[in-house]
Every structure is written in C-alpha cells, then in structure tokens.
Amino acid sequence: MNRQKELNKESFGLFLIFLFAFFTAFQFFGKSNDYIGYYYIFVRPEKGNVRDKTEPFFMLLRLFNDVLFNSALFPVYLVSALIALNLKWKAVKKLATSHAVIVFFVETLCFFWIHEYTQIRAACAIGIFLFSLTDLINKNYRKYIVKAVVALLFHYSSFTMFVFYYFVRFCKTKKSVMLFPVCGFLFAVLVSQVLGSQLREMIYAIERLSGLNKSGTVSDFMSPFNAKYLMILVGFLLCAFFVREDDVRNFTLCKAVSFGLCIYYWLNPAGLPVISVRLAEFYTSAFVLCFFNCARFIPIKEKAVAYMLPACCSALYALASIRTAIHL
Fold this sequence. Notes:
Layout: H1 2-25, H2 35-42, H3 56-69, H4 74-95, H5 100-111, H6 120-137, H7 141-154, H8 160-170, H9 174-194, H10 197-210, H11 227-242, H12 248-266, H13 273-284, H14 287-294, H15 303-325
C-alpha cells in the first residue's frame, strides 16, 4: 500500500514537472518580461551582430541548441524548466514534513511565474540551492560548497550561497535569525521615511555614474512597505517564533527566509530591484516549505486554519509575481 502511494506521488510530481515545463517552453500565458533578453542570448544573430554574454552552462546549452535546433528558444526554455522543476521536486520530497505533492504544487504555483517562466537561469540555480539545503541540515558542508559552485555555472547570483553558508553556521539562535530582518526593515524605513528623498536621490546619482542603476531613475518597487515582502516578513516571524532551535530542518528553512529578507531590506535604500530582489528571491523561495512545515506548530486548535496561512500567502505571492513577470 505504501509502495503504491509512493508511486502515485512520484507520478503526479513528474506530471506537474512536465506540465509546467511545457507551459514555459510554449510561453503559454504570453511572453515573459525576460523573453526579449533571452532572444538576444540564444537566437543566432544576424551577420555582424554579437550575442549577449551568459553563464557557462547556458553557453554550452546554446552551443548544442545551435547545432540541434537551429537556435530556437523553445528547447532552451524546456530544458531549463525541466532541470529547475526536477531539482525543486527532489528538494521538496526531502524537506517537506508531509504532503510533499501539495507543497510542491503550491511552491510551483507561487514561484513558477517569476522563476521557470521568466528568469530561467536563476530558476536552475535556485533549484540547486533548495536541493542543497539538505546538505546544510546534515552538516555535509563540502557537498553544499560543491553544489554552490555548480549553481554558479547557471547563474552568478549563486555567489550569495557562500555568504548564506556562514549565516547558517553563525546564526544559531532564534533571536538573531528574527532580529536581522526586522532591523533591516527598520533601517529601510528610516532611510526612506525619516532621512527623506534627498539621500535616496544622492544614492541613485552615485549608482547612475557607476553604471549600477542603468535606468537612472528611482524604482517605485523598492519600498520597505512592499506588500509582498511585508507578507513574507510577518509569516516568517510567526513561523520562527514557534519553531524550535533543535528542529534543524525547519530552523534551517527559517534561516533561508530570514537571509532573503535581510538582502531585500538591508539593500532597500540602494533601490536596485534587478540586483536586490533577484538575490532576495533566491532565498525567500524557501518560504512555502517553511510555512507549511511550521504551520503545525502554531497553537490553533483547528489546524486547517493554520494551514490556510501559507496557502493564502502563496496565492497572493503568485498574483504579485504574475503582474511583474508576464506581458498580459
């Protein structure tokens, strides 16, 4: 009986992987905001033009794609989504306390639009990161470092995995894990509300001169009161408050979400959404796993109510992601 359940679970997981991978490959819901960027990376240019640079793995994929599929974008999206979703499925099976299929389905609905559908290179690296969390939990630090190096071949934002390694090793108490993002939020509010717009304009002027801020304008997205990140912050604090420090698996998941929130809030005054948001979402991608695993610790008699929190948060996050990821 258990064997049959495992087979059914695996079959449904694979069905979801292929279903969402084909949605990505066909850009079923409309062209993503990054589609044109990938066109200039992977589609063979006209005579005299030069392709945009990309990470080592995708340079190799581009080489094979040129030969086998005449530089079409369909195989690139398909292969990337299959890799990313398969890694996430393997991670969920190891990290979810129960109902792995449901957790994977919610995780996919939540992050699919911004990751596999849009940021295909980052999606693969994030899949490797989630898969590597088991190594941190089991203290297999060498394996984690190896996977971090592999993730760098998919997306250069993976360099933060080395920083996260030290965050996990040295933040051993709930107080520190909860305090860092809260202080980051207060710091972001201080800069944006108290110190005023003049300081922010000066920061943007420096970024514009250095080439970091390519648009040269202040980003409306980068607000400490961004509803998506406030929702994650509140949910994270709720989970972290009830999780035990000796519950290594769930405490590590809390650390991942904490680290992502730290990146967003502490870099918030710089107002660089392309950099800070992408780095933050590398780690906040663990919040679905974290919320579902920790919901059982919330002291509510009717546990269905507790599990509604991560489900509702995930739905709202998915809606926010769809608005920013797809040209509808």
